[in-house]
TrEMBL record:
<dbReference type="InterPro" id="IPR019987">
    <property type="entry name" value="GTP-bd_ribosome_bio_YsxC"/>
</dbReference>
<dbReference type="Pfam" id="PF01926">
    <property type="entry name" value="MMR_HSR1"/>
</dbReference>
<keyword id="KW-0132">Cell division</keyword>
<keyword id="KW-0479">Metal-binding</keyword>
<keyword id="KW-0460">Magnesium</keyword>
<feature type="domain" description="EngB-type G">
    <location>
        <begin position="25"/>
        <end position="208"/>
    </location>
</feature>
<dbReference type="InterPro" id="IPR006073">
    <property type="entry name" value="GTP-bd"/>
</dbReference>
<keyword id="KW-0717">Septation</keyword>
<comment type="similarity">
    <text>Belongs to the TRAFAC class TrmE-Era-EngA-EngB-Septin-like GTPase superfamily. EngB GTPase family.</text>
</comment>
<keyword id="KW-0131">Cell cycle</keyword>
<protein>
    <recommendedName>
        <fullName>Probable GTP-binding protein EngB</fullName>
    </recommendedName>
</protein>
<keyword id="KW-0547">Nucleotide-binding</keyword>
<dbReference type="InterPro" id="IPR027417">
    <property type="entry name" value="P-loop_NTPase"/>
</dbReference>
<keyword id="KW-0342">GTP-binding</keyword>
<dbReference type="InterPro" id="IPR030393">
    <property type="entry name" value="G_ENGB_dom"/>
</dbReference>
<comment type="function">
    <text>Necessary for normal cell division and for the maintenance of normal septation.</text>
</comment>
Length: 213
C-alpha cells in the first residue's frame, strides 16, 4: 500500500503582482478560503513544518500571495519511491474583517488575476470551515471559481471540532453545495486527520497536470 508525504518544504517567494510570480514552471497547488478558516495551519500541518506559514488569530493577516516550494513523495513497496516537486500557494483570505475598501479591492484584483491567469495552477483547494458549511461568502467564492473553470478540491477544515456523525453529515452537505469532480475531504490541522487522503489526491492531481505516467 502506498504512503504519501510532503517533504523539503521551504519558503520560496511572495507576490502581489503577476511579474513577481516564480518562474520555475512548477505545478502549483493553491489554498483559498475566508479569513480565519485555517489556511496557514493546514499548510503547516501538510508540510509537518509548524512555522512555515504564518498563523494569526487576526482575520486577514495574510495579505500577499506566498509560495512554498516542496515535494510530494509517494512510497510503494512494489513501485518504489517517487517525488514530484511543486509549489504550495497560500492566497489571502476573502472577507477581511478589518480591511479598508481600497486595500480589499486591490487584494481581490490580484487574487483574481492569479486564479484566472496562472498557467501552472493544477488545483485550487477551497477551504470551508466544516462546522459552518454553506455560508454565503463561501458559496459566492465557489460560484465564481466554478464559473472560471478552475480545477477545485473542497476541503472541510477544523474537522476535530465535530463529532463523527456531525462530520459525515456536514461533508455530505459540502458535496451537495459545492459539487466538483472529486468529493470533499475533511481535515484537522490540529491532529493531521485527513492528511493521507488529501496528500494522495494532490499527488494524482499533479501527475495528471504534468502528464506523468
Amino acid at each position: 500500500m502506498a504512503s504519501f508525504d510532503i517533504i523539503q518544504a521551504e519558503y520560496a517567494a511572495t507576490a502581489v503582482r503577476r511579474d513577481q510570480y516564480p518562474t520555475n514552471n512548477l505545478p502549483e497547488v493553491a489554498f483559498l478560503g475566508r479569513s480565519n478558516v485555517g489556511k496557514s495551519s493546514l499548510i503547516n500541518s501538510l508540510c509537518r513544518h509548524r512555522g512555515l506559514a504564518r498563523v494569526s488569530g487576526a482575520p486577514g493577516k495574510t495579505q500577499t500571495i506566498n509560495y512554498f516550494k516542496a515535494a510530494l513523495r509517494r512510497r510503494d513497496e512494489e513501485e518504489g519511491e517517487r517525488r514530484l516537486p511543486f509549489f504550495l500557494v497560500d492566497l489571502p483570505g476573502y472577507g477581511f474583517a478589518k480591511t479598508g475598501g481600497k486595500n480589499r479591492d486591490r487584494w481581490s484584483a490580484f487574487i483574481s488575476e492569479y486564479v484566472t491567469a496562472s498557467e501552472n495552477l493544477c488545483v485550487l483547494c477551497l477551504l470551508v470551515d466544516l462546522r459552518h458549511p454553506g455560508l454565503a461568502i463561501d458559496r459566492e467564492a465557489y460560484e465564481w471559481l466554478a464559473s472560471s473553470g478552475v480545477p477545485l478540491q473542497i476541503v472541510g477544515t477544523k474537522a476535530d471540532k465535530l463529532k463523527a456523525n456531525e462530520k459525515h453529515r456536514n461533508l455530505a452537505q459540502l458535496n451537495k453545495l459545492f459539487p466538483t469532480d472529486h468529493p470533499a475531504l475533511a481535515y484537522s490541522s490540529l491532529k493531521s486527520d485527513g492528511f493521507g487522503p488529501l496528500a494522495k489526491n494532490l499527488f494524482h492531481r499533479i501527475m495528471e497536470f504534468t502528464n506523468l505516467p
